[in-house]
Amino acid sequence: MIAPLFWQLMRKDLRQFRRLYKGKFFDTCFLFFTNIVVFGYFMPLMGVPATYGSFILVGAIASFGLFDTIGQVGELIFDIEGDRTITFKLAMPVPYWIVFGQLAIKWAVHNFLLCIPLFFIGKLILWDGFSLRQIDLFKLLLIFPSICLFFGSFSLWLTAMIKRIDSISSLFLRFINPVFMFGGYFFTWKDAYELSPYIAYVLRCNPMLYVFEGMRAACLGGEGYLPFWTSFFSLWGFIILLGGFALKALRKRLDCV
Q1: Is the distance from CB of 179 to CB of 206 less than 8 angstroms?
Q2: Which of 198, 206, 216 is nearest to 176 (CA)?
Q3: Residues near 138 by beta carbon (within 8 Å), at least 6 away in sequence
Q4: Helices (H), 82-181
Q5: Torsion, Cα of 27, 28, 31, 37 (10° steps)
Q6: Residue 184: phi, psi to the nearest 5?
């Protein structure tokens, strides 16, 4: 009973997403293009390494799901505080955690489908500046779906943390921007360690560090980054931790059984 209902919900959501995909993909590509052109062609003129373009390219692909959490959290909170259509799903003969888990997986699939083609678009933009042969496909197929699933669980956690609709306006400044800026989009953990070992180890409390380090270790080689498996298992630790907290809090908030 559970599996058919789960896949029915997924098919319904994917059909809706298919109608929106073209517009979302164009927006993502436009943002991706501006990032790669600036950091791949303009910044080297200011003295940054020529490889910085590929560094940012991989980081951008890994991070787009973080900014999608704003819309996902807003949509879910507006529903909880407004129409409460989610109560119809919670009334189905499935455990509450299946309903919330399906939301996280749905968001993860959306992010995966939007971002995976960007590797080829990035190759076209940078050309010789980015080699697809560097990519360890096995590691990429492990880390990228995990990153997408992390953003799904992170969205659920943010929904649980934000109690009122008017608090959504603070979502970017209080949550998204800090974890992004200090997560390693512009630098590596090794760079942070050279600045200060104390700062570097504090940054390891930030899950985005493992998103960027794991993705770059899979796509650009392991040298200069945290060990791939450290990033992979640390990221899964955050998925379980944030997801578990979110399920418990949302269950209480919506009085689920």
Answers
A1: yes
A2: 206
A3: none
A4: 86-90, 96-115, 118-126, 137-161, 171, 177-181
A5: -120
A6: 105, 20
Residue type at position 160: A
Q: How far apart are alpha carbons 215 and 147 in whole angstroms?
A: 9
- Count CB neighbours of 105 within 10 A: 18
Q: What Rg value do the Cα atoms of the chain yield, rounded?
A: 19
3-class DSSP string for 203-214: HCCCHHHHHHHH
Q: Please state the length of the chain.
A: 257
Q: Which two tokens stand for residue 241?
A: 């931790």
Of 72, 39, 106, nearest in space to 176 by CA: 72
Would you write out the chain's pLDDT as a tens digit for each of its 257 residues?
677 788 888 998 999 999 999 999 999 999 999 999 999 999 999 999 999 999 999 999 999 999 998 888 888 888 888 777 888 887 777 888 888 999 999 999 999 999 999 999 999 999 999 999 999 999 999 999 999 999 999 999 999 988 777 777 788 888 999 999 999 999 999 999 999 999 999 999 999 999 999 999 999 987 899 999 999 999 999 999 999 999 999 988 887 65
pTM value is: 0.94
3-state secondary structure of 229: helix
Which residue's entry shows tokens 């950091």?
39
